[in-house]
Write a structure and sequence with these properties.
Elements: E1 5-7, E2 39-41, E3 49-53, E4 61-67, E5 74-81, E6 84-85, E7 92-94, E8 104-111, E9 118-121, E10 131-132, E11 139-141, E12 149-153, E13 162-169, E14 172-173, E15 181-183, E16 193-200, E17 204-205, E18 207-210, E19 220-221, E20 228-230, E21 239-242, E22 251-258, E23 261-262, E24 270-271, E25 282-289, E26 293-294, E27 296-299, E28 309-310, E29 317-319, E30 327-331, E31 340-347, E32 350-351, E33 359-361, E34 371-378, E35 382-383, E36 385-388, H1 419-433
Parallel strand pairs: 10-17, 19-26, 28-35
Antiparallel strand pairs: 1-2, 3-4, 4-7, 5-6, 5-8, 8-9, 11-12, 12-15, 13-14, 13-16, 16-18, 20-21, 21-24, 22-23, 22-25, 25-27, 29-30, 30-33, 31-32, 31-34, 34-36
């Protein structure tokens, strides 16, 4: 290393106040005193240059390339955007969105012991362009069938990227389908799905990529529930199918079965077993259908075997006057629809022979007795029910009256349309003339029993 020195000489003479030149012998051989001199170095300045390498684009890294600086010089950096210092003091600068459109320079200051500091500034690069996003082709996960939810996965993009989504059915944009996940409606069964993902990030150019097509959308699967049967498995008792919820928009149909065989016309949500199902177990099959979905059918558990039904009944009553010659009528009341009836009359607890109609003409044989009637109801598939009326008062003798009817003319059963008509005629004349018309051939007090 070359050094240039400048020498300055400084003389200082110290004279002692009490020392005179005259006191110095003229003949002394002592040399004169000389002043000390300090030589200082003149410091040369460092020299070098700097330039910027790299692409001036958001997200890219610029590098300060130095040249001509001494190898042992210390270099300090300062980056600038449009002349404003950035918080960047290293040899590289990664361009942020804030630098978009700016011109970038870097200043290098070199220092080394014994040298004067030197500063170099690069030429400007820029303006800084928008960055290019790192992106990936999106993918779709999930089962591609009606009612299922599929999800878009954007893949790996530049950190901080925000995403927007648009779903397509067979390349046609689906209105409103702009979320990451999408639930497939029935209208798109048989079509394919794609999703477009758009990435945006401040300082970068937005970018859109589309996924691959899915397979054709398959029919959905109904969320079916096995039905239950409520009610008692009994003839005449209503059973109800409790199907549960299969989702909105599902239409249901029903088929009831007895011991595994379909019951004709039993296709509603309720079913009342008849005598035909007595002793058999009941199940119900519920079928659900919905557009875009595969039809599903579920079967309930079996009931116990159907038992005999219970008839609705009313205790019978007796109308009429308990008097010889009068007609008593059994008022059976309200029973189950379809019930058939039989009657048995009693005198003081003893069955009256052949008194098995709904009416009874009292004869002298019943005088003094209390009359009851037993009504028996029967219906196929039901337990037979028999009910006894309350007793009448004791049967009295026929009433005496001055208005005895005139003796009737000749009549027979063909002159009456019904048993009731014949019985009324019989009751009118019998107390006075006996069975003059021969309407009671078996003497049981019941006229023209062959009539309806």
């Amino acid at each position: 290393m070359l050094q240039h020195r400048s020498i300055s000489l400084s003389l200082a003479a110290v004279l002692t106040a009490g020392l005179a030149l005259s006191s110095v012998p003229a003949f002394a051989d002592t040399p004169p005193t000389s002043s000390a001199a300090t030589v200082t170095d003149e410091q040369p300045a460092l020299s070098g240059s700097v330039s910027i390498s790299g692409t001036a684009r958001v997200g890219a890294t610029l590098t300060a390339a130095t040249d001509g600086w001494p190898s042992d010089a210390t270099l300090a950096y300062q980056w600038f955007a449009d002349g404003t210092a950035l918080p960047a003091t290293g040899p590289t600068l990664t361009l942020a969105p804030e630098q978009l459109g700016a011109s970038i320079t870097v200043t290098v200051t070199g220092t080394e012991s014994g040298y004067a500091d030197a500063t170099a500034t690069s030429d400007a690069v820029g303006p800084v362009a928008a960055g290019v996003l790192t992106k990936a082709t999106p993918t779709i996960s999930g089962t591609v069938k009606v009612g299922s939810t599929v999800t878009a996965h954007p893949g790996t993009w530049t950190s901080g990227t925000a995403f927007a989504y648009q779903w397509y059915a067979s390349s046609v944009k689906i209105s409103g389908a702009t979320h990451q996940s999408y639930t497939i409606p029935a209208a798109y069964r048989g079509k394919t799905l794609t999703v477009h993902v758009t990435g945006t990030l401040a300082g970068y150019t937005s970018s859109t990529l589309g996924s691959k097509r899915t397979a054709a959308i398959a029919s959905g699967t109904l969320r079916s529930i096995a039905p239950k049967i409520s009610g008692t498995a009994k003839v005449g008792s209503t059973l109800t199918a409790i199907r549960g919820s299969w989702g909105s928009g599902v239409r249901y149909s029903y088929q009831w079965l007895a011991s595994g065989r379909a019951i004709p016309k039993a296709t509603h949500s309720t079913f009342t077993p008849t005598a035909a199902q007595l002793g058999k177990s009941i199940i119900v099959k519920v079928t659900g259908s919905k557009p875009g979905y595969t039809t599903a059918a579920r079967i309930s558990a079996r009931t116990h075997t159907v038992v005999a039904g219970t008839l609705k009944w009313t205790t019978p009553k007796i109308s009429g006057t308990a008097r010889v010659g009068s007609t008593l009528t059994a008022i059976r009341g309200t029973w189950s629809s379809g019930t058939s009836f039989s009657f048995q009359w009693y005198a003081s607890g003893k069955a009256i022979s052949k008194a098995t109609r709904s009416t009874l003409v009292l004869t002298s044989a019943q005088k003094g007795a209390r009359i009851t009637v037993r009504v028996t109801g029967r219906k196929a598939g039901y337990t037979t029910v028999s009910k006894l009326s309350a007793a009448t008062a004791a049967v009295t003798a026929p009433a005496t009256t001055s208005s005895k009817p005139a003796r009737p003319g000749d009549v027979d059963c063909s002159d009456f349309a019904t048993h009731a008509q014949a019985q009324a005629w019989f009751a009118k004349y019998y107390p006075y003339y006996g069975d003059v018309a021969g309407l009671d051939s078996d003497n049981d007090g019941s006229a023209c029993e062959s009539l309806p």
